[in-house]
Amino acid sequence: MTWFRTLFVLSGAQLALAAAVFGAPAADTPLDAVMVRLDQASAGFKGLTADIRKMSHTDVVNVDDAESGTIMVKRVKPHDTRIRIDLTNPNRKSVTIGGGKAQVFYPQSNEAQEVDLGKNRGVVDQFMLLGFGSNSAELKSAYKVTLGGADSINGEKATRILLVPTDPEILARVKQCELWISDKGWTVQQKFHTGGGDYVLSTYSHMNFNPNIADKDLKLELPKGVKFGKLK
Predict the structure, then answer these.
(1) Distance between CA atoms of 57 and 4, rounded to whole angstroms?
(2) How far is CA 25 from each of CA 35, 56, 74, 174, rounded to the nearest angstrom?
């Protein structure tokens, strides 16, 4: 399993288009309406907290692995978004992404893993952009965007949009993204197809937009004696 696939499995790609609606004007089509909501929200998005349920499907063995916990996101500045995910069920695990690196901590075994995003930072930044505060122009410049149709997630009305990466480097890792954007204007579910029938499905609830998140809250406080390894 590559480090990129590992990050998707650990954090669900952690890439929700979280955005509140601020009185969207009329649009010509349902897809246009979604794009208008994203444009209006992108300027005001600073961060969020939410509950997250992530399910990773491995097609070759037809296995679904589900995890749940909480997510914190802070947009420090354009192209600098920090994420922390604390998974608690069925096992404890913490993931942070930001500042050019990703870290994972397993409290039960007192082990930590780290990867320097290095030359892959541009790819990760693109998905971070997709996930947090992106606007329609940015999406359309990097993805072929089409309308999936009306749907409902946990009883909430939503519109599903489909995004296919146009960059071959990104397309090699993720074949297609599906985003469910609620009628209130935020993403309540996302699905990343990673190839071979595998995918990661993340569902968000109890979303709180633009909370006051301290920088220290997004960092892992690793205990003494922790064993370090490298994400591969």
Answers:
(1) 16
(2) 11, 37, 27, 33
The residue extents of the domains of the chain are 3-142+158-216+226-230
What are the φ and ψ backbone dihedral angles of 54, each rounded to 5 degrees? -120, 135
The alpha carbon of 139 is separated from its chain's Cα centroid by a whole number of angstroms, namely 15
What gap in Å lies between CA 211 and CA 74, rounded to an integer?
Answer: 9
Confidence of residue 96 (pLDDT cuts 50, 70, 90): very high
Note the pLDDT tens digit of each residue in 198-220: 999 999 999 898 999 999 999 99
Whether the pTM exceeds 0.85: the reply is no
CATH number for 3-142+158-216+226-230 (one of 3.90.25.10, 2.50.20.10, 3.60.120.10, 1.20.1070.10): it is 2.50.20.10
